[in-house]
Amino acid sequence: MAATRLYLDWNATAPLHPAARDAMLHALDLYGNPNSVHGEGRATRAAIEAARRQVASLTGAEPAHVVFTSGATEAANMVLTPEFRMGRTPLAIGHLYISAIEHPALREGGRFPKEKISEIPVTSDGVVDLTALEAMLSAHDKASGLPMVAIMLANNETGILQPVHEAAKIVQAFGGLLVVDAVQAAGRVPIDINEIGADFLIVSSHKIGGPKGAGALVSRGEVLMPKPLIHGGGQEKGHRSGTENALAVVGFGAAAAAAVAEFESRNAAAAKLRDRLEEGMRLAAPDVIIHGEGGPRVPNTSFFTLPGLKSETGQIAFDLEGVAISAGSACSSGKVGESHVLMAMGCDPKLGALRISLGFTTTEEDVERAIAAFARIAGRRKLAGAAA
C-alpha cells in the first residue's frame, strides 16, 4: 500500500474546507441559545442567519426560504409528504412520481405510502424520460390531490445532469410540485431555484466541504410548505423544531460561500482532470466502459465499468493501492450491491461499476497516480483471465 493515501471519493463526502473549519472554530465560542433574546443568544442567531444567506446565495433563493435540517435525508423526508399547507389552508398531494435513478433518500418516497409512489423511467443514456413523465401526469387522478415529482439535478453515481428545467415546465402545466435533489450539483453547476422552476431544492453540507450533520430544504416561495417532520418548539419558523446546530450550520454556510467564490476555478480544473483521467483509463484498458460520457455531466465525476472486474473487487484493489474510490453511492452502511442506476439505464448491473470523484484539492499528480493504479489493476485482471 502506498505510504500516502489518495482520496478520490468526493461525491460520498468532501474533506472539510479550510473556510468551514475556521468558521466552526469561531462558532465554538458561540454558546448562547440562538432562540434566546439576550446578547449571547443574539450572537449565535446572527451567525446562523449569516449562514442562511450564504446557502441562499448558493441556490439562488431568498434567505427566508432556507430551512436548515440535519442533512439531505431529513430534508427529503420532510418534503416528500402528502400533507402540505398553502398558508393556513391544507393542500393534499395525491401521488409521488420519482425518477428511477434517485438517491435512496428520495427513492424510498419519504412519508408517501408505497401505493402512492410511481417510478419515472430513464433512457439508456441515464436521462429522465420526459415523454413518460408527461404521460404519467396526464393519467394522474386529480381528485386524489396534486401530483408531486422528484427528479435529481445531477445523478450521484454517473454525474449525468437531468433536464430539470424542462421537467419543471411539464410539472407546472399539470399543476404539480417539483422537488429537485441538488446535493451532487451544488457547487458544480450553476443553481438558481427560480430559473429552474423547482418548488423545492435539497442541498447537503458535507458534499461541498462543510461538516456532516447539516443540510437544507430550500423553497421557491414561503407560503407553500410541507407538514413538519419534527415537532416541538417551532424553530425554523415552525418548519423544523429543535435548537439549531449552530456549529454545523455555520460550517455549512462557510462551505457554501467558498463554493460560490471558487466556482469557476474549481470546475474548470475538475473538468480538465476528469478528462485526463478518462483518457488515461482508455489507454490502459481500451474495453473500459465510461457511463454517461456522451451527455452533460458534472465536471468531477467518472463512473466506469472494467469488464471482468466486480465492483467490490475493484474497490478493494484501489484501496490496496492507497486510492479511496467508491462502487456507486455511499449510502448503505458500506454495502456494495448492484447499482439501481445501471439497472434503470438498461445495463446489466452485475457488470459492476466504480466511481472516481474529484474535488477542490485534487491535483494533476493525483490523477496520474490514479491512472497508474487503474493500469495495474486492469493488468492483473488480464493476467487472472489468462491463468483461468
Structure description:
The chain has helices spanning 18-27, 39-59, 72-79, 104-107, 130-138, 164-173, 193-196, 246-261, 263-284, 311-320, 340-344, 364-387, and strands at residues 6-7, 66-69, 83-86, 89-99, 117-120, 146-150, 177-181, 200-204, 215-219, 224-226, 289-290, 301-305, 323-324, 354-357. With 388 residues, it is α/β, with parallel strands linked by helices. Strands 2, 3, 4, 5, 6, 7, 8, 9 and 10 form a 9-stranded mixed β-sheet that branches. Strands 11-12-14 form a 3-stranded antiparallel β-sheet. A two-stranded parallel ribbon has the order 1-13. A hairpin with a 2-residue loop joins β3 (83-86) and β4. The two termini are 26 Å apart.
Number of strands: 14
Terminus-to-terminus distance: 26 Å
What's the SSE pattern? Answer: EHHEHEEHEHEHEHEEEHHEEHEHEH
Shape summary? globular
User: How large is the radius of gyration?
Assistant: 22 Å
Estimated helix fraction: 25-40%
- Decide which structural class fits the backbone: alpha/beta
Beta-strand fraction estimate: 15-25%
Q: What can be said about this structure in brief?
A:
By secondary structure, the chain is of the alpha/beta class. The chain has twelve helices and 14 strands.
List the helices and strands and how they pair.
Layout (H helix, E strand, L loop, with lengths): L5 E2 L10 H10 L11 H21 L6 E4 L2 H8 L3 E4 L2 E11 L4 H4 L9 E4 L9 H9 L7 E5 L13 H10 L3 E5 L11 H4 L3 E5 L10 E5 L4 E3 L19 H16 L1 H22 L4 E2 L10 E5 L5 H10 L2 E2 L15 H5 L9 E4 L6 H24 L1
